[in-house]
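Late entry, evening session. Most of the bench is empty. Finally got around to the prediction I had been postponing all week. Sequence below, unchanged from the version circulated by S.P.
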Amino acid sequence: MISPATFAFFVAASLALVLIPGPNHLYITARGLAQGRAAALASALGVEVGTLVHIAAAAAGLSYVISQSATLFAVVKWAGVAYLVHLGVRALTAKQDAAAQAPPPQPLRQVFLEGVLVNVLNPKVTLYFLAFLPQFVEPSAGPAALQIVLLGLTLLVLGLLSDIVYALAAGALSGRLARKAKGLRYFSGVVYLGLGVATAFAGRK
């Protein structure tokens, strides 16, 4: 098993990372402002289910394969860019109901699946599991795959707690800003497009 000292250092380093607002937080916030607390929580859960996919891929060695293949990395990267741009364009061009002055809410199941895809198609997360997490794997502590799963699940729990805080905050603000639905829709669209641009410029070192 991983030594307590190494695990404690990993938890501290991971806390520092998850507390800094990142693309996932922006996505969850945009979703919460646009559709409320339930949608924000659904997107947060979706994002972390996407983290489960990354954990499984890292444990199986797929993250390494993707990071070493320019073609596979480009496929993941541009698929993520295309999906985020699609979300942005859809938010900016959605037709509003004349009475409610807001686009119809998306089913929570769809919101959840979008969260999964946003995280799975994020090449930065793949590189995180390749460059950061393996530094805490101890060769003498047992199978590397099991250690990666343990560290990945720890990161998932910390990330989920952070995501929930952002989701609840965005949900609370959404209720107060309900009358400004058009502005929130444009804000969401700009956030998605911004995330797409950021993903497009994600390099591979």
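Two things to note before I forget:
The chain has one domain: 24-200.
The CA atoms of residues 48 and 157 lie 8 Å apart.
Will write this up properly tomorrow.
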